[in-house]
Amino acid sequence: MGRTTGRTRRKRNSSEGVLSFGRRAVMGGVAALLLVAAVWTSWGSAHHVVLAKGREHGTLTVARCEDGTCTGPYDPDGPDGPRAGMTIEQSVAVKKGQRFPVVVKPDTDELVRTGAAGLLYAWVPLGGALLLASLVIGGGLRMTRTAWGTALAGAALLLATFFAL
User: Fold this and answer.
1) CA-CA distance, 95 to 37, in Å (whole number)?
2) Which of 53, 99, 157, 163 lies most in the core, judged by the most C-beta atoms within 10 Å?
């Protein structure tokens, strides 16, 4: 009586296969959702840096920072004179008196840092999402090599940003 037949064994293997496929599909969806959300978030600032041709460029000198934004005199490239009232999102590396290149977001008084530091800073959410997705890829999908590659890419992006700022 305690013997399993070939038919029972096939049913068990079949249900294990369905559960395995379901787990992999859900974990793949979670990893993809993390990465798509990160690209969407990063692109909000990054597209001003990546597609900066034809936008107003200049230099911002930081005068003060409060409530998550920094202000100071903005000196546009070209014949226009300096303007006040321009703001930029405060980052950890911004100090009073510091000057850096910026681009103006169209139809606003907001600035985005340009150059290598600005480009890397804009993609920081993607770096964090790569680290988080590596846990899902490694643990949920059991793809350890891919998980390590994803984690290393995220860590490299975050470290490059840290040193660039």
Assistant:
1) 30
2) 157
How far is Cα 120 from Cα 81, in angstroms, rounded to an integer?
29
Q: Quote the CA–CA distance of 123 and 118 in Å, as a whole number.
A: 9
Q: Is the pLDDT of residue 7 over 80?
A: no
pLDDT in tens, 32-42: 999 999 999 99
Torsion of CA 95, 101, 103, 108, to 10 degrees: 30
Whether the Cβ atoms of residue 92 and residue 98 lie closer than 8 Å to each other: no
Kindly tell me the number of DSSP H helices and DSSP E strands found in the chain.
Answer: 4, 6
Report residue 76 as tokens: 């546009």
Identify the residue with better confidence: 126 or 83: 126
DSSP label at 109? S
- Which residues neighbour 51 within 8 Å (Cβ) at sequence distance 6 or greater? none
Task: With CA atoms as reference, report the closest residue to 85 among 116, 63, 100.
Answer: 63
The 10 Å Cβ neighbour count of residue 45 is 21
Work out the mean pLDDT of the chain and round it to a whole number.
Answer: 89
pTM above 0.85, yes or no: no
142 DSSP assignment? -
**Position of tokens 């984690």?**
151
Question: Residue 70's beta-bridge partner residues?
Answer: 65, 88
